[in-house]
Design goal:
By secondary structure, the protein is an alpha+beta fold. The protein folds into three domains: 121 residues, Aminopeptidase, CATH 3.40.630; 158 residues, Gcn5-related N-acetyltransferase (GNAT) (Aminopeptidase, 3-Layer(aba) Sandwich); 156 residues, Aminopeptidase (3-Layer(aba) Sandwich), CATH 3.40.630. It contains 18 helices and 21 strands. The strands form four sheets. Strands 8-9-10-11-12-7-13 form a seven-stranded mixed β-sheet. The protein has a seven-stranded mixed β-sheet with strand order 15-16-17-18-19-21-20, sandwiched between helices. α7 crosses α10, α8 packs antiparallel against α9 and α12 crosses α13. The longest helix is centred in the middle third of the chain and has 23 residues. The radius of gyration is 26 Å and the shape is globular.
């Protein structure tokens, strides 16, 4: 079996949903709207087989796969995925029943399973959320009664494009409240990560709004005194399950979250027996809130590692590899050969920390060259622009990434990760941070950013990143 992947686009909807809507897999990650919305973040690619949709993600330089199928995972498919992943396969989002079946495959593969509780999906019966019947939901009914008493003239409106500006306004209020809360209770790194996620969610929402009808979205909103105080929207993940992708409300309006939850369920088409309200991300308050509605199904989420034969080996480089480095940089980056040769002679290459990767035939397929040169020597303009910064940097121990090149065939695999991990113990033991100059025209900026590298300077040629050993 050969797998052929391509970048996910809107045009994949019909052929993918012919499988996913009927597969019975209610995992929110199979919702086509979610996949399209987050494609920019995970570089999502897809391969559609006769009875399965295979998704390939690239994140932090690593590949991971999801498989949506009603059938059991075949050994033939696993072997094809192993080949695509170069012998080190990560499957995400598998339910317990799938992992149990996978462990019974008659093979010599090494398989490990890790449940990820923070990613379990909360799935409810739509009628339970709409009616809130039963003593176990007394508190929820009381929230609704209180909201109705305080706002007897509230309106439920179907979410349509003319209301999107109101959604943006309300999301802005929600974002400000969330930022204020996190600034009070988290450190700077937590806040930065949270802000990056919020900005990503904003981009996802704009993608959804721009393709509302094409994606088959369904939404609802609550208005009080002519002003939107809550909205939500979702899309089908299976024929009988709707995934609630987004829910926002004004926290200053008590009961706004409760009423949009109840009203949306009440107004949905009856074909939707279940509502998937997605994961809790390990946030204690969110977990408590989701559990308090008593889900019908807590859908398990496992990460499965399957190890086959390695398709490469990684070796230390020596000074004998100078010509190899020059050839690769000329070929891959289009540099002038004499200029590269000059760099290699003068930039104090750290050969003991430089590595190369070879395939099974002994051909070189990747290089990671490290250098001990000083920042202010090679980029003197930094010394003029930011003398205090250079002074502080030179009081620390650092090493530079001179070049990090992977053969085109192996880009997006674990090869770059494996090369970096080979020298990581030495980096952690001997250096305070890594210095990474990246030419503007290269495509590796986002790779290093995802590793946590932060820009601290740029000039006409490069962006300069700094990262602590990972």
């Amino acid at each position: 079996m050969t797998l052929s992947f391509h970048q996910l686009t809107l045009s994949d909807r019909d052929v993918m949903q012919a499988v996913t809507l009927n597969a019975g897999r209610r995992n929110c990650n199979y919702t086509f709207a979610n996949l399209v919305g987050w494609q920019f973040w995970y570089y999502t690619e897809v391969c559609v087989l006769e009875n399965a949709v295979v998704l390939r993600y690239t994140f932090d330089g690593q590949r991971a796969y999801m498989v949506c199928t009603a059938e059991e995972l075949s050994l033939e498919l696993i072997e094809a995925l192993l080949n695509d992943s170069n012998g080190d396969l990560t499957l995400i989002g598998l339910e317990d029943s799938q992992t149990s079946q996978l462990l019974t495959l008659n093979s010599q593969l090494s398989i490990s399973v890790e449940p990820i509780r923070n990613q379990y999906d909360y799935i409810y019966r739509r009628t339970d959320l709409a009616t809130l019947h039963g003593s176990h939901l007394n508190a929820k009914r009381n929230h609704i009664h209180r909201f109705r008493a305080e706002h007897p003239d509230f309106e439920y409106r179907q979410l349509t494009p003319e209301l999107f500006d109101e959604c943006r306004r309300l999301t802005g209020i929600w974002r400000e409240e969330k930022n204020d809360n996190h600034n009070d209770n988290h450190n700077d790194n937590d806040n930065q990560n949270e802000n990056e996620t919020i900005e990503a969610e904003k981009q996802v929402m704009e993608t959804i709004f721009s393709n509302w009808d094409t994606l088959g979205m369904i939404g609802g909103s609550i208005f009080v005194d002519g002003r939107m105080v809550a909205f939500t929207y979702g899309a089908a993940v299976t024929n009988d399950t709707l995934d609630v992708c987004v829910e926002k409300a004004d926290r200053n309006v008590e009961g706004a979250f409760a009423i949009i939850n109840q009203q949306f369920a009440e107004h949905l088409p009856e074909q939707y027996i279940y509502l998937n309200r997605e994961e809790d991300m390990g946030i204690p308050g969110l977990r408590q809130a989701k559990l308090s509605y008593h889900p019908e199904i807590l859908l398990t989420y496992n990460v499965v590692k399957v190890i086959g034969d390695r398709l490469w080996v990684i070796e230390k480089m020596t000074e004998a590899d100078v010509s190899l480095t020059v050839d690769w940089m000329v070929r891959q980056y289009g540099f002038d050969r004499a200029e590269v040769e000059d760099w290699v002679r003068n930039l104090h290459f750290n050969w003991p920390l430089s590595v190369k990767a070879l395939d099974k035939n002994g051909d070189v397929i990747g290089l990671l060259n490290m250098s001990d040169y000083r920042i202010e020597e090679e980029t003197p303009q930094i010394l003029k622009d930011q003398p205090e910064l250079i002074k502080s940097l030179n009081a620390q121990r650092y090493i530079a990434v001179f070049s990090f090149i992977v053969a085109e065939k192996y880009r997006g695999t674990r090869l770059n990760y494996d090369m970096l991990m080979t020298i990581m113990p030495e980096l952690k033991a001997n250096y305070d941070f890594i210095f990474i100059p990246v030419l503007h025209r290269l495509k590796t900026h986002q790779y290093w950013q995802r590793w946590g590298a932060k820009e601290f300077y740029r000039d006409k040629d490069c962006v300069y990143y700094k990262a602590s050993p990972f």
